[in-house]
Amino acid sequence: MPAFSLDTEQTTWCAELRALAAEHLKxxxxxxxxxxxxxxxxxxxxxxxxLSRLFEAGxxxxxxxxxxxxxxxxxxxxxxxxxxxxxxxxxxxxxxxxRARWLPGAxxxxxxAAFALSEPGAxxxxxxxxxxxxxxxxxxxxxxxxxxxxxxxPEADFATVFARTTPGAGSRGVTAFLVPADRPGLGxxxxxxxxPHALGTLTFDGxxxxxxxxxxxxxxxxxxxxHTLNLFRPSVGAFAVGMAQAALDAALAHTADxxxxxxxxxxxxxxxxxxxxxxxxxxxxxxxVHAAASAYxxxxxxxxxxxxxxxxxxxxxxxxxxxxxxxxxxxAAPPARPPPGTPLPRGPRAPDLRxxxxxxxxxxxxxxYARHHEERLHEEQGHASPGRSRPHEPAPPQPRRPxxxxxxQPRRHRHRHPLRLPRRADRARLRRHGRGETLTExxxxxxxxxxxxxxxxxxxxxxxxxxxxxxxxxxxTAPTPANWAASGGDWRAVTTRDGRDRSRTPLGxxxxxxxxxxxxxxxxxxxxxxxxxxxxxxxxxxxxRPTHGSLP
Length: 552
Known about the structure:
Elements: H1 8-31, H2 39-47, H3 50-56, H4 59-72, H5 74-93, H6 96-108, E1 113-116, E2 132-135, E3 141-151, E4 158-164, E5 174-180, E6 186-190, E7 199-209, H7 221-257, E8 259-260, E9 263-264, H8 269-298, H9 303-329, H10 357-380, H11 424-432, H12 436-457, H13 481-487, E10 491-496, E11 504-506, E12 515-517, H14 531-534, E13 538-542
Parallel strand pairs: 1-4
Antiparallel strand pairs: 2-3, 3-7, 4-5, 6-7, 8-9, 10-13, 11-12
Helix pairs in contact: 1-2, 1-4, 3-5, 4-5, 4-7, 4-8, 5-6, 5-7, 7-8, 7-9, 8-9, 9-10
């Protein structure tokens, strides 16, 4: 954002506004009823020419006006802002007949305006409003529904009302109407807020509106609403800056004169550092607000993001500065208005005006991501990115990874030994892919090698697996007790991996019972496994400790 500073004329005008507010507006505000429309105050704003300046000035002048009034009299600033919010759609989008009827009274302070956008189920999500505008068959509509948290309601003389004329169209199905307060079926009641504010509800029970009441084109009301909110959003930040500056001035005056610990509060480092932090944040928020307003006056495309940033920082800063000022005042702070027992800090609160701070963060993030995607698309199309010094070169295409020869090929570690039989799931895959003959050959070879190992353990010289003395068979020949005793093994049973041999096996020193039963698949209860035998494709169960001469 560009650097910004006020010139001498603007600074002088702000000082004059503060003097007018202190002399003429603040006494009227003190005599008004809290939370209700103060018509004498609105009329005074018109007599001083501030309301007419409101509709002639740009965004920056509006910010300077609101900040100057808020620094002296927040009630006068609020009355000015609410009047401008309800009247701006008429000034910007109204027909000549509508302007001739309502603008003179609004700028003079005789007619009070309202801006009816929020609903019980549609606050910050303005596109989700549900106030129905039902066609009446004669070119007009009938309004049915309720509006809530409406400025100057229900005492306003006219209201800018946003209703849905096309169901299911989202923001494209909203239309803006100018509705006078004397229309039949229009009612409402004021709302008692924690902070004094002229807010209320509006109820619509078949309120008639016609083509002469349209503000803009049908189904283009969302554009009217966003145009108004984008103008007033930075000025909400200016209002917050004015409140923060007023709280800072009060804290400075109090800490400079309040005696404490043989001096004044300002002599304490913690107090002076808090004052410095308050002043720094206030000045930063002011510069951001002025920069956003200047961007609006220039017609920059990123006004929504800048306006949201300004409002977010300014309102959060105002809350911090006001709370800090209350803390520094201690018991000397102004009395609170909240109901008894409500744990709220004393002083005005700005973050809740015209949208929550979370909504402003959402607006900022959406705009940032939209800009990021646009820059990426710009680079992909071969154009130079704003942050690059040379054109973007597309990356070469990456080669495709080769597909494996067999989709269901077992993992490599399952075949580290040539005699290792595949698992049951692998055997099923092999059978489905026509490799059953390989499974038979592996099983036969494993069985023959086992018989050779048993003969070798009993003293018989080994024979080759292909000799006639080792006929291939699907059942395991049980070893003799002599061979088991000579080998020194303390074994219980030997079973093939498929577990089909269920015969009893005489054992030499098998432990209690003297015999063991071969178990079927999935039912073995092996305590210890001789892995050297397991690698031959057979499972061997032990009962005792293995000794020398066991199976290789």
